[in-house]
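Weekly modeling sync, notes
Attendees: S.R. (lead), two postdocs, one rotation student

Agenda item 3: backlog of single-chain predictions. S.R. asked that every request posted to the team notebook include the full sequence so nobody has to chase files. The rotation student volunteered to paste the first one in as an example of the format we agreed on. Action items at the bottom.

Example entry:
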Amino acid sequence: MAVMNVESNTRTRILTSARVLFHGRSYTDVGIKEICDNAKVQKGSFYHFFPSKRDLAMAVIDDMADDWAHGFVAEAFDQDLRPIERLDYMIDAAYYWQTAAKDLEGRMPGCLFGNLALEISTRDEVLRAKLNAVFKRTCSRFRETLDQAVSLGEIAPLDSEATAQAMLAFLEGVILLAKTRNDPEVIRILGPAIKTLRIEQMN
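Predicted structure, as returned to the notebook:
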């Protein structure tokens, strides 16, 4: 049991180190040695858990996606909230998350998934597919919310799948713009416009 706990702790430290470094800088810019030094582990320990840097990146994506799913995304898409209120909550959550990160680091980190997609999606098909799966899961939460809003009469019928994709693209774009300006207020000001997006159903 003690050995398992040590191994779990070592793996967690490596994951945490990589997550912070990838998010704060970039996947390409960060090397395995720096990850190990930051995690205070030997390279041998790294390769015991992760055969390659790509395998580590995939684990980081899974780890972050799990935090998203059980963290602010779950809170934003709480079924006890009215569907349209969930969109407001999502924007608020993104704003406060990025604001807290800037207060801590002095700069906005942006979205880890968006950052990685921009950096490596044209160079690594495996990681691109992994990131695409994360975006698809998030998109499904928007689609479910829109379908419920339509069924409750909160909004007129629309193409919920296409509109959900537009909402995800809008959210990622707003976060990217805010990161470029290093100003979370961009999210607060522009974010509410997500509720105006709608793509009509094709006849």
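Discussion: group reviewed the output briefly. The mean pLDDT is 91.
Action items: rotation student to repeat for the remaining queue; S.R. to check formatting next week.
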